[in-house]
Specification:
Blueprint: H1 3-21, H2 24-27, H3 38-57, H4 62-75, H5 77-86, H6 92-116
Helix pairs in contact: 1-3, 3-4, 4-6, 5-6
């Protein structure tokens, strides 16, 4: 398997696992406009990350997994915006983390698209 696919699958698997092991930070960035429990959204997005990681690992489903990863990175952008807004008065370190997540989505989307090819 190529290094690009392994790296992306590892990133998604790690993040997906963290959604279940330490859900509170993820709950806090779920946009309030989404219906239902924030925890359900945290678990659903974690499960999606794990499923996409598995799809990327399997050569036959890698293209679909890469495209799904790109869509996921687009879909979680509102959570990153919420984090940036919520942390605008936080410590400089927290602000740096929150603000750096916004442009980070673009290389993540590009990475996922490369894996899909």
């Amino acid at each position: 398997m190529d290094k690009q696919a392994i790296g992306l699958a590892g990133l998604l698997a790690t993040s997906g696992t963290l959604h279940f092991l330490v859900p509170r930070p993820f709950d806090s960035i779920v946009p309030r406009s989404l219906p239902g429990s924030r925890r359900i959204w945290t678990y659903a997005s974690g499960a999606a990350e794990l499923a996409i990681a598995a799809a990327i690992v399997v050569p036959r489903t890698r293209k679909l997994g890469g495209l799904a990863a790109a869509a996921l990175f687009v879909g979680v952008f509102p959570a990153n915006v919420k984090m940036a807004v919520d942390w605008r008065h936080a410590t400089p370190a927290k602000r740096a983390i929150a603000y750096s997540r916004l442009p980070l989505q673009l290389p993540l989307i590009a990475w996922a698209r490369r894996v899909a090819r």
